[in-house]
Amino acid sequence: MICIFLLTILSALIAFYVYLIWDFNYWKKRGIPGPTPRAFFGNLPSMFTQKKHIALEMDKIYKEFADQPLVGIFSIRTPQLMVKDPELIQEVTVKNFKSFHDNEFSQLVDKKSDPLFGRNPFMLTGEEWKERRNEITPAFSPARIKVLQPLIDEVAGRLTNYIKDQHEALDTKELASKYTTDVVSSCIFATDAQSFKTEKPMIREAGRKLVEFTFTTYIILFLVSLFPFVKKFKKFQFVAREVEIFFTKIMVDAIKYRKDNNVVRADYLDHLMQMQEKKQLTDLELAAHGVSFFADGFETSSIVISHCLYDIAANPNVQQKLRAEIQNVITKKGGLTYDNIAEMEYLDQVLNESLRCHSIASHLSRLCTEKTELTGLKDKKYTIEAGTLIIIPFYSVFLDAKYYENPEKFDPERFNAENGGVKAYQDKNVFFPFGNGPRKCLGMRFALAQIKRCIVEVVKNFEISVDKKTKEPLHPDPKQFMIVPIGGVWLNFKSIEK
Ligand code: HEM
């Protein structure tokens, strides 16, 4: 009896092992090079062991296959294709977009399983994605963002007052999260999130729950990597029900307040209200739009702000030059309007260089939805099967010495006008911090407006320096999905007396 039992267990283990390694010849058969995968882990063990950030793990593979345009890798047992060559990246994201319009997350949720995330453009696929993106794009026009500028200014003022009241080094990620939470909440929900006043304000806590990867999230990601077919039958819920109820109520209240008090302001909320009338959207659908803006808007921008302030603090010459530009614009133009800030060329260079040195994530992803042929260098053809997940390792591309001289150096001058500006790198397809092609970041204009306003506010009012509590060189925290430094970014702020 025991023998039969042990034999059954052994057979099951062997069957499972064979299942795990069954496809490990996939890339070899197609003539695509790649690192040897390990049973159970594939080539990206840190996705689950969390010993190293996934960006560093991918970077190791990227460098190991330095001269290869494509590298075949495995996530546990599933073949994935790392596309490294800039021309091929352009083919996937732009030229052949019709075969690569979805991303890796889009298969995990739907509207039924997760009413809020299931309606976020980032998660949608095909026609529904297109429709939703078209619906919301006008809300991010320069005119609508300009209307929000006074709200952003007000929060920038709160930020300055808050910093002045502190007498020790501050964790800039935390500081920037307070700022972006208040800006985004004021711009979408017309509500003061009170991040600078209260220790744990409700909106910030709910926002935290929206973006954090919980243990359950990791289990789901692990299971779908192990058994990819599960995605066909089962969709998941990432936003907890209580968070869904919280944000739906905020959205409904904001709209009611506007209607009851006849508030007219041509902004994002106004755009949603017009859509509600035209398309008979439900409260839940409106809340989903609001939550998309909130979730996509506060965390990403706060990471970028904290990295950019770190770069400015660590490079006193850059700080001086930037402060001079800001003073100059204020003196000549009389104030910090949306247009005046947009005209600051050096600020743009500094921010772009910071986005290059510190990508917010390891890669973009695209799912191949129909068999497609890509054309590489010397007209070499590569056939990509439907279902293949494409990994575009932008973290590594931006730090590749082939495209950037002395890539580890923070040097805003590489983006100056004499060198062709940022366009020179965009034309070579080696700079795309907001993604590329029709699926490029929808909130880029808003992100730039809130980030630049924050940087200008801080550099105008404070001399900043890196505090010894910061662990240098910065090293990505393996426990976070986005690239956030271990231990935080601690800066000292010295008020500039006028
Ligand atoms: C500096 C801050 C930000 C960065 C670096 C950033 C970066 C990105 C990237 C890399 C993508 C994927 C693009 C692709 O696959 O080609 C993306 C998508 C997206 N972002 Fe952002 N983002 C930022 C801020 C924002 C903000 C503030 C919002 C909204 C208010 C936003 C809304 C979105 C949306 C809706 C998508 C999905 C677009 C689609 O799939 O059609 N992002 N972002």
Mind sketching the topology for me?
Elements lengths: L1 H20 L4 H4 L16 H4 L4 H11 L5 E6 L2 E6 L2 H10 L30 H11 L5 H24 L4 E2 H18 L12 H10 L3 H12 L3 H4 L7 H20 L7 H12 L3 H32 L1 H18 L4 H5 L2 H13 L6 E4 L4 E4 L5 E4 L4 E4 L1 H5 L22 H7 L16 H18 E5 L23 E6 L3
Parallel strand pairs: 2-7
Antiparallel strand pairs: 1-2, 3-9, 4-7, 5-6, 8-9
Helix pairs in contact: 7-8, 7-20, 8-14, 12-14, 14-17, 14-20
Bound molecules: protoporphyrin IX containing FE.
Function: May be involved in the metabolism of insect hormones and in the breakdown of synthetic insecticides.
Subcellular location: Endoplasmic reticulum membrane; Microsome membrane
GO cellular component, one term: endoplasmic reticulum membrane
Any idea what the shape is? globular
User: Order of strands across the widest beta sheet?
Assistant: 1-2-7-4
Q: CATH homologous superfamily of the domain at 106-364 and 422-495 - what is it?
A: Cytochrome P450
Annotated CATH architecture of the domain at 106-364 and 422-495? Orthogonal Bundle
Keywords: Endoplasmic reticulum, Heme, Iron, Membrane, Metal-binding, Microsome, Monooxygenase, Oxidoreductase, Transmembrane, Transmembrane helix
GO molecular function: heme binding; iron ion binding; monooxygenase activity; oxidoreductase activity, acting on paired donors, with incorporation or reduction of molecular oxygen
Subcellular location: Endoplasmic reticulum membrane; Microsome membrane
Transmembrane segments: 6-22, 210-230
